[in-house]
Every structure is written in structure tokens, then in C-alpha cells.
Amino acid sequence: MDKLLPAGFIKEVMYPAWLKKLIMVKKSNNKWQICVDFIDLNKICLKDSYHFANINQLVDSTAGFEYLTFLDSNFRYHQIPMHPDDKEKTTFITEGRTFCYKVILFWA
Fold first, then answer.
1. How many whole angstroms separate alpha carbon 108 and alpha carbon 75?
2. Residue 10 falls inside a structural domain
3. How far apart (Å, rounded) are the C-alpha atoms in residues 64 and 54?
4. Which structural domain, as residue segments, surrounds residue 106?
């Protein structure tokens, strides 16, 4: 929280309708990472009927364009703002305070 709050990735929330728990996950390098458990939220969200494109479709769709950009989630970019209606759905509790994400999460 000490890094996320000053960076503007999260904000404190009072009286949330949604609340998730934090879980600790041990990474392959034996370090611990804090994660938010969104399993219940995922169960009630509407599913997109769009499937991921295969590599041939992706390459073909770039034809004729001058630029092609990528978002590499391995570097944990937090640059895409979350829709205001969805921020509260990411609310989690820690040390008696509640926070929600202001940006879309990307974790490696």
C-alpha cells in the first residue's frame, strides 16, 4: 500500500458495497506477493463472447498501419484507467482500511 497509494494506483474507499480479501502468494523466486482474491467477482461478471485471436489474425490485422503498439504486462504497467463504475468492485481491505484500484491491474 505504501507504494500503490502515492503512485495513484489505488484510493481509499469508505462504506464499499464490494469487499475482497488479500491473500499472500509465494512466487517462484521465494518472495511473497500480495494478491486480491477476485474469484467471487469473476463468478458474477458477464462473459465476453469474443475469443482471443490467434497470431495469424493479429499479424493480418496490422496490415496497412504505420504503427503497432504492445502492452507488456510482464512489467506490471498500471497505465489504463479503470471505468468509474468498476472501481468499487476492486475494493479490498487491509489493516482496517479499505482501498480500491483506480487502474486496471496487470500482474506477471
1. 7
2. yes
3. 19
4. 1-42+66-108
One-letter amino acid of 78? H
What CATH number does residue 102 fall under?
A: 3.10.10.10
**Amino acid sitting at position 68:** L
Q: What is the pLDDT of residues 27-83, one digit of tens each?
A: 899 988 878 888 887 787 777 776 766 777 877 888 888 877 765 555 556 778 889
Whether residue 52 lies inside any domain: the answer is no
User: SS3 sequence, the chain?
Assistant: CCCHHHHCCEEECCCCCCCECEEEEECCCCCEEEEECCHHHHHHCCCCCCCCCCHHHHHHHCCCCCCCCCCCHHHCCCCCECCHHHHHHHCEEECCEEEEECECCCCC
Do residues 91 and 10 make contact, with C-beta atoms less than 8 angstroms apart? no
The answer for residues whose C-beta is within 8 angstroms of residue 32's C-beta and 6 or more apart is 24, 25, 26
